[in-house]
Design a protein that fits this description.
two-stranded antiparallel ribbon; 16-stranded antiparallel barrel; about 270 residues; about 60% strand; about 5% helix; globular; mainly beta
Amino acid sequence: MKTNLIAIILLGATFAGCKPKKTETTVLGFGTPYLICPEYMNGRVKEVKETVFWSKIENGQITKGSPVKWKQLDSIKFSHSFIARYSENGASLGCDYLNEDGTINLGWKSTIEKGKIVRISGFIKDSITYYGLLLYDENNCQVGLTLFSPRVDTILSKWIITNNNKCQYSMIEYLDYKNRRTGRNEFTLNQNGRVIDRKYYNKSDSLIYHHVLTYNNRNFLISEEIFTKGKSNGKYNYKYTYDNMGNWKTEIVYIDTKLKLFVERTFVYY
């Protein structure tokens, strides 16, 4: 399932931000479908493209079928195809979300100063739909985001971000333009810094749903189950093949034990 598109557009991007430096790990999370469960890619990734296909069985093997259409992905609550780009020090430069024919539906771009993202701009086709300004603490952890309407420069919404001592988020509070809290996410991380539980509460502090996530020995997500009022709303299971860098290049997706999707990744490394 990963993260639905509406959350990305309305809320901007997730931040697992620490002081920029040369790294052999690139975080896939900021402004991508990995909003709620950032993935740590091996190597200095310049670009990663993820394309979602229907799965099919051919000669006894599971392989990719036709690309899944935008609305079909919405209907099965699965993330859209995308291309994410990174600077050499791992800062997110932007992400394009793709239609089934490979054209860009919408996306966002960042402005980098001194190795840090200071501004994001969201677009649909050629029109800017929002821009956001980021706030950091003394340790260069991202602690806030304010989203604005580009037409009249009025505030649309805000984030308040709470981090652990590794600049990994433990809570994100969402506020409207009047600084009224509209909801919050709380995150539980394992010893490897992966999100294993995500809870969402509404403005009345009522638990609406939570996700339970598990990982394999390579620290890639292998299952995700969504619970509402204590009952399962569905479970997603993932199986992978890997490239020479140890990053997954194909993902087979089962939804409630039924074979559904074949996801393919291509990488450009620095």
